[in-house]
Request: fold
Amino acid sequence: MEINQVVILIILSSLIAILGNVAGLIKPDYHKKISLISILLIIVFTSLSIHSYYQEIERLKYEKDSGFLQVEKLVYPNIYLGSNAAVNTPDGVDFSSAYDFAIPLNVRIDNGYLKVSTIIRDAEGDIIAVINDNNWQVTSRSLDKNFDQAAFEVIDSKNNVVFQVYTVNNEAYVNGVFPREDGYFVVANETGCRLGTANPNEIYIQKIFKYPSFAYPGIRI
Reply:
């Protein structure tokens, strides 16, 4: 229920209370009955107003252009790019030089917490978001993103997942479409990693969350 609707209902209940007082001048029994109804209505509408207020606060959090990815603490987890396991080191994995991927992605563990840094692009190669040690900044209004305490996900204007990171069972998974300097893209998803031109029709990364995020903040599929 929208806040404006709640305000209108509170005004109506107040009018009922006033009418109850007027009716009480005519017939005392009416005053008691209408006053009780008014009190109940005010309690209900006030509760709805508080609920609506916190819903609005939650919605605004998911519409912000920047934020921090806070994930649960891990104990020396395995790190996966797609379905490919990467050897974890105390410094994490820098995929710009590891395994010939040559993509702008660094994943590390800092005091038990996953830290991710990357540049997120759409299928056309345009930068739409940046993550630096879990501090994310959206640079395009043509995307949507959703997140909770164990995952962060970005979709582009074509409803394709272009980046996601999540943790489960002490393992960290990173999927997405990652550009290379030679014009090709590394696509990492549940089937593995492959090098290609990242044709939007060829990309499929299963969504974690429901969209749009303002309607389903933090709600998983």
